[in-house]
Amino acid sequence: MDFGWSSEQEMWRKAVRDFAQNEIAPRVREFDTSGEIPREIIRGMAQMGLLALTVPEEYGGMGADWTMACIAAEELGRADISLALPVLYLVEAAWGFIFAQYGSEQLKRSVLPRVCSGEAFLGIATTEPGGGSDILGATRSRAVVDGDEWVLNGEKMYISGVRESLKMGGIHLTLLRTADTGDHRSFTFMAVPLKDTPGIMPTLIEDMGRMGISTGGFAMEDVRLPAHYQVGEVNRGFYHAMEGFSAARALIGATCIGAAEAGLEMGMAWIKERQAFGRPLASYEGIQFPLADLWAELEGVRWGVYRAAWEMDRFYQRKEGGHHDIAMAAAIVKLRAPLLAWNVLNEVANWYGAAAYSKEYPIEMGIRGVRSYSIGAEGTVNIQRLIIARELLGSEYMPYRN
Ligand SMILES: Cc1cc2nc3c(=O)[nH]c(=O)nc-3n(C[C@H](O)[C@H](O)[C@H](O)COP(=O)(O)OP(=O)(O)OC[C@H]3O[C@@H](n4cnc5c(N)ncnc54)[C@H](O)[C@@H]3O)c2cc1C
Q1: Does the CB atom of residue 126 touch ligand 1 within 6 A?
Q2: Is 377 a pocket residue for ligand 1 (Cβ < 6 Å)?
């Protein structure tokens, strides 16, 4: 057991923190208002190797392990508590990894170097208008083989990065029904380019938060894709999706921890400065005790994040442990970290008083952004609870087959 960081990890954290605090933090309000992460920031991220960093070097990535990826996610969340830019980062890190593992060589060679250089977007599309939690029941979009092509019909909804994909090009790993076995062996992943693809009809949704990155949907009407756009094995898409969800959940945990840390640091600076009844707010136990409680919880959840990263590194680098260990560790942090960050930012808002409610200060951006991660994005809190309960009790106690 070792709770220390290696010198390589410390150097990486410092490099990402310097970049994020200097180049990103001062511009968060700007992109929360404009709705778009500035090109020069994306270029800067590419130069730092931050885009799809888990992708092997031969495809343009850094081949970073999950501990390094979580360190960067934490620092990006700390710099952008609106959590817009961390979405771009973590979606590409998690799902770029899945694409690098299971995509066809031909497509990987054409897509991944452009994703890693910030010229294309890579996203995930599993959710449909009928629901996101119940993939088995709600996934109606279908792909059928026609000659040497796939033909796709259906609709995906509440998908991150639709506008980015339409503008920059790239792919969304899209889950489609390819069989009717009634269980998890009915789905296949396809790499769907939204830009300039006949039959794609995109929509955009106006969100409450993380305004710097878009959310939208796309209908597919007889979209024809060559065979090499298939990702992974036919009818194994559900399993590839679960692998990607676990990775994304660990990264979300890290980025929410970063936002919580930033919130508490801002809050501590504020309560030391702000006076009420002749003393700094920091001198009242009514302020100190929630600070101490939140800090203690943060410490625990933070180690949970790196435990999940460790499980993934153990599995992917050393072939030890397995998907159940990863799913459990990632579900724990996806359950706790977004709720913790939400609680932190709401408590800090109390300390700020009226100032927190104004756009003069970033707290309100954080509250709006962090909420996305307990509501939905990469699985709701109840879905994390179901995964944890399944791992504790066994699948036979779940109300559905899995
Ligand atoms: C900002 C944002 C970005 C997103 N980006 C993407 C993306 O890039 N790609 C993508 O595919 N999806 C994305 N999503 C969708 C997200 O994955 C879904 O919101 C999530 O999976 C939940 O699906 P739903 O919203 O349809 O809720 P539902 O599945 O309809 O669930 C509604 C409620 O019921 C609860 N519930 C469901 N089943 C159970 C059960 N068995 N027991 C107890 N409670 C249950 C849920 O926890 C939830 O509270 C995004 C969502 C948001 C908010």
Answers
A1: yes
A2: yes
